[in-house]
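Thread: Modeling a multi-component assembly for a lab meeting

Hi all, long-time lurker, first post. My supervisor asked me to bring a structural picture of a complex we are working on to next week's group meeting, and I have zero experience with this. I have the sequence lines for every component (1002 residues in total). Could someone generate the structure of the whole assembly? Inputs are pasted exactly as I received them:
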Amino acid sequence: MTFLTPGIASIFAAVALPTLGLLYFLKLRRRRVKVPTTLLWQKSVEDLQVNTPFQKFKNNLLFWLQLLAVCLLLFALARPLLSGGAADADRVAIVIDTSASMNATDRGPPRLDVAKRKALALIDSLEAVPISVIRFHDEAAILADFTTDRAQVRRAIQSIEPTDRGSNLIAALDLLEPAAQRAKTQDQTLAAHIFTDGKTTTPGSGQQRSAAGSPVLENTTIVYEPVAAAAEGKRANAGITGFSIRRDLVQPAWVDVFAQVVWSGNKPLQATAELTLDGVRVRSFPIDLAAAKTEAEAPLPSQSLRTRIQHTGPGMLILKLLYSDALEADNTARIVVAPAQDLRVLIVTERSFSPMQEAANAYGVAEIIQADTADYAQAFKQGLTRSGWRTNNALDASTTTKEEGYDLVIFDGVAPPAQAIPTIDAVYIGTTPPLTGLSRVPHQQGGAQVQRVIRTHADHPLMRYAVMDDQVFFEPGRLVVPDDGVILVTLESGPAIAEVTRSGVRHVVISPPLRLLQDAPWQWPYQLSFLAFMQNTFDGLGLGELADSAGLASQPGDNLIWPQSQTAATYLGPGSSELTPRLIDDRAYFPAIHRAGLYSANKKTRPPYDQIAVNLLNPTESDTRPIEVLPIAIAATPGSSSPNASGTSGQTTGVNQTISNQVQQALWPWLLAIALGVVLIEWLTYTRRMKI
Amino acid sequence: MAHPSEPQPDGKPAGLISPALLRQLDKLDVVSRKLLSGKLQGERRSKQRGQSVEFADFRNYVVGDDLRRIDWNLYARLDKLFLRLFLEEQDLTVTLLIDATASMNYGEPNKLLYAKKIAAALGYIGLSHHNRVSVYTFADGLKDRLINLRGKRPVPQLLSFLEAIEPVADAPGDLAESAKELALQQPAPGVVIVLSDWFDKGEIKDAVRYLSLPRFDTYAMQILSPQEQDPLKMAQFAGDLSLEDVEDGHLADVSISGALINRYKANLAGYLDHVQTTCAQRGVMHMLADTSVPFEQIVLKQLRERGMVG
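Re: Modeling a multi-component assembly
Sure thing. I ran the full set together rather than chain by chain. Output:
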């Protein structure tokens, strides 16, 4: 049995018990009533000792009943947990979830505070074994390596700050893997106490992960320490899990707004969501959602919201859920509305016509500027970076002929000189930029002219919907990719498409050169996969995503990279959070954002760089329903087999590895009920005695 | 018609006795169970022979006797001189001893007011029959007094005196000391009527001993209010209380309960029995007066039934 708040209970006990005793040893402060004589009363009462402040203790049933009730209440105040306890292990790892759902206040204090208190209580119950502290959200970090210094462990736990980020338990278990291996070699056991509400993204419940990459935790006992109990959930949560806008392609003045609201309560929800633009209410949405199922695996009831507003310029669009619930971070979603702006692409080629123009036209790029190398050198001198969104509410970018900079540069068959490497995202076709470790080996005479695709990086955003299984390339050559490069497509001859990032600038290199259709009818640019690839390129590279999108919003965990010239020194966010970017070259690199909310520049800055809207928009984190069984998936040790431990939905377990979900039962409701019963008996006894 | 003991509509206390009651009281007289000698000629027979119209006895004539009292008819028949003796009618000393301690200023109806009304009635009865009426108040000793009133003329003086009686503060009652002083200061035989609640923390046997001297025919009237007989009739008399004795400030901490109230009533009954027994042992007639009973009923009915007035 462990106690969550023994300190508070001790303080109250130190006050309440002596007070109760004094009440019986001290005389009551009685109401004074005048009577003709106390002659007869003197004979009638027994406690006539008026001259001393204390009286002899009399064995009184009421006193014992009251003492029992107070003791029960104090015991309940200490919040004892049954069957929790520390696992008997040589080493103990305390893993604490700091994701957004841990900020839910369904138990009164935030779940993270409960987790920290439980963790501190666990430390007190442990003997002198090495303890490690790991906190995790969508990333994990070791706050204290295995140490017997309890003060250090306590400080590490107390230093844990809440975030609004996602949750990835596997990332934390990855950090435990070396410790588990070390424990195995030393023939020791490791206990990992995971303090979480269970809302974690794990293989099988979200991100897919290959079994080979799953952590192997041997000689390890995993103890699930839930911080959200079904019986204690006083308040459920309604949250905005989707919020986006898009301008109408035909009528850019109209903005389509999409949102989604979910509800995790066990009773139907009727509420209102309010949409405001620059502080002016635009629309109210009635929210009417059915009760959510108690099974944590069941999807939450959701309601989609959609409306259309007319707005030509920039602004701040805020969707607010007018409902007080357990989690505040997902009740508001903001988005910086951008004025319509067209994509501006520079194609550098020595050809008279580049097939890339057709791809850009097919995508709908409004401004396609074709230049030769001389023009590119001139453009590089003037600066390739766009100055940001215009603030004149202009919808048609073509009316402004003297546009500055570009969103993307495409080099078709020509490479930029070393002194003019693009400072914006760029695509290189049939050539490579002069970057260290990156080069292209042309097709060798005598080699196979047609090369097939043997592997693609299907998970990469640029390869989305680009199916290249049956694609062949004609004399593609091959790339030599540096270690930090990402190979997107590999042919029989070697890498064909790769991405290399330098100073925040993404360089996508395509080895096969573009050829005219009559020269090679099967070539890639005339296939659907090429169009999908280029669409992903326009969407994902440089400011293309920003220029195409009607709104700008981030999520916790994002790392923003903005032009240095447009960025303020510091952005002040919710609470005491702030973002201070690091300035490298002409880019401003923001640290990872931890809290959702609106961050405002501390000095005057041009829109949209004056504000950063960060929204939670995470259905997993908005689901505050407690989970009784922690979904853990851990890879099995090759050559071994072990049955799944009860209470998990994981895949397999390793040798000598035990996974247990010890759902600690809170005893305080029972203690409170018993105390109330004792008080009732005490009242009945008193009433019977005082009956006249 | 408002009850005389009830307050007037203007808030002032009513007169002690109403005119209607006075007419009824005219028919009554204070009766002594003893034949006590008075000082002056009155309307009451005495042991002494004297001048009256009521024949008592004959005796032989001796030289010097008043010749006017010789029974000449008897002399004619017996040829001896006999003297006719007549009973001496003397006045009766009626002493009213009123408890003016703070404990008497209690209850609804108020005990002291009740005592003053009974004293007024008895005093009027005494004065209307040419008895000698004296009134004393006492607390820790005798306090105010109005003595040797006789005839109906001082009735207003008596009523004014009674109305002016106020409870004595900071003076714990001492009935024994007061009775002792009365015994010393009242040498005349007569009827003594003690109007008190008899709540005395001393030994009441001493008081009764002084009041039961042979020259006194003592009536002990114990006046209790309904609130004393049943404390629950007091307002807000519940819970944990600190009871303060209005006379000596003594505190008694109590927690009101049914058991405690029952024990109090038993103690009260025991105390009343103790007072009555003590008085009976000394020949003092004990009477209990409940202030909830109209005092006219006490005077006109109960006192007559007990033979105090007739």
